[in-house]
Amino acid sequence: MSETLKFLLIGLGCGIFLALVVYFWQLSKRRIDKNKSETEIKKYKNMLADRMDLESNGISSLKMELEKLRKENENLRITNSNLLLKPGRKEVQRLQVYQTAIDRLVINSPGFGAAWQSALKESEAEFEQTYSGAKPFFKKILPHKTNPKLIDEDDNND
Questions:
Q1: Which of 12, 45, 86, 101 has its CA at a distance of 20 to 30 angstroms from the CA of residue 71?
Q2: Number of domains in the chain
């Protein structure tokens, strides 16, 4: 063999050896990068799964709370309508309307105030007498409502 062929083979051998070293070095580097990326992907998947669990728990608790508040709202609405239907509520509201009307009349009509005050005092005194003396006893015995026909017959007999 000639000298040039010998140098050529030695150069080729060194080149192949260097190429193999670089190839294995790149292969090991690729494996390390692949392992790192797989580890990072697993970490992100776990983080995503945890976040989805937290969000689903939060959403389900919000849905339960919303349903509870809807039921409570409906119960309060029913209770409110029932309270408005109780006896006495409409009468109290009507009394408030009457009181407002009386206050306006007292302010606007100068003669009405004095007449109203005297009528009010007489009615209060009469009301107080119903709790003491013989009046309560007679009210229990006598009927509360009078029949207009009976009053007309008494007037005709006189």
A1: 86
A2: 1
Collapsing DSSP to helix, strand or coil, 109 comes out as coil
> Does residue 49 lie within any of the structural domains?
yes
Q: In the numeric block, which tokens belong to residue 18?
A: 């260097």
Mean pLDDT for the chain overall = 80
**Is 69 a member of any domain?**
yes
Alpha-helical regions (H) of the chain = 3-85, 89-108, 110-129, 135-141, 148-157
Pairwise CA distance, residues 21 & 86, whole Å? 97
Q: How confident is the model at residue 51 (pLDDT cuts 50, 70, 90)?
A: very high
Check whether 158 has a pLDDT greater than 90: no
Q: The domain containing residue 33 runs over which residues?
A: 1-86
For 94-127, how does the pLDDT look when each residue is reduced to its tens digit (9 = 90+)? 777 778 877 777 777 777 777 777 777 777 777 6
Task: With respect to residue 141, please indicate whether it lies within any of the assigned structural domains.
Answer: no
Distances (CA, A) of 71 to 44, 130, 153: 40, 48, 61
Residue 133 lies in a domain: no
Identity at 22, one-letter amino acid code:
V
> Distances from the Cα of 124 to the Cαs of 45, 112, 127, in angstroms?
83, 18, 5
